Amino acid sequence: MTSAQKIRIWSLRLALGLAVFLPIYFASAALGSKFGIWDWRFGFKLMRSYGPNLLYISAFMSVMSLILAFVIKPRNGQGLSVFALTVPFLFMAYGQSVKMRAQSVPPIHDISTDTQDPPVFSSTIIDLRGTTSNSLNYVGKKVGKSDKIVSVEQVKAYPDIRTIESQLSPSESFKKALETVTGMGWKEQSRSESTGVIEATDTTSWFGFKDDVVIRIRPSEAGGSLVDIRSVSRVGMSDVGANAARIRKFTDKFNN
Fold it and tell me: CB 3.0 to 4.6 Å from 65: which of 56, 81, 124, 195, for a disulfide?
């Protein structure tokens, strides 16, 4: 075996090794945060600071192995090289889609169907969130360090997020809301049928981020009930549309 053939073989092995390592690396960065092995900020750093470099190295080695597979005899291994190249490009494509989605929505993390009189969280949720979580003060809350108001930006970005006007009675809506919370896999934190308030927490699959939800049910003057829901992330400035998506999903399930 010539030295050139050895280089071809080892470049392919390295490319394949990196292709296998990448999913493990990114999954570990997220799940390590979810299970408390490290802080979510460190998990984000693993993904956003070191992750791209790994993707570039993996793509470079895959291209190198593909070129060598065509140049050095015996000319084989092209399929494996293409497979190795596909993996980092899939991660790059996903990362770009997340970036584009983040740029398409305002950097906010507190969404309410009622922006003028939003549902209020009780001390139960306040205690769970601790002192380091995002503020629960909605009225007048600004977007980061800008002068933009969260409620105004929300209406612009998510005009479909509105109060649910149900023909069900308040007690029936309360029961339906509880069933919906359970069906969506949220952890119920508190309930009070007398005040028509339900509180719950939704935990994301990968990083294990905890977002808190409060549902408020009130009688409607036209009969039936008005159901408002508010969803707030505990950490991070932008939720990349997650809270709005959560409210939409709740609304769809509640109405069907």
Answer: 81
**Dihedral angle sign, alpha carbons of residues 55, 58, 60, 63:** negative
| DSSP per-residue string spanning 152-202 | HHHHHH-TT---EEESS-HHHHHHHHHHHHHHTT-EEEEEETTTTEEEEEE
Q: What is the pLDDT of residues 116-173, one digit of tens each?
A: 999 999 999 999 999 999 999 988 889 988 999 999 999 999 999 999 999 999 999 9
Inter-residue contact 200 to 119 (CB < 8 Å): no
**Which among 171, 71, 161, 77 has a CA at the least distance from the CA of 115?**
161
Give per-residue pLDDT as tens, 41-94: 999 999 999 999 999 999 999 999 999 999 998 888 999 999 999 999 999 999
User: To the nearest 10°, the Cα dihedral for 152, 154, 156, 157?
Assistant: 160
Query: Is the separation of the CB atoms in 173 and 193 below 8 Å?
Result: no
Helical (H) or strand (E) element with 237: none
The pLDDT value recorded for residue 145 is 84
Helices (H), the chain: 3-34, 40-45, 51-71, 78-104, 123-129, 150-157, 170-183, 242-255
DSSP tag of 1? -
Specify the pTM: 0.90
3-state secondary structure of 232: strand
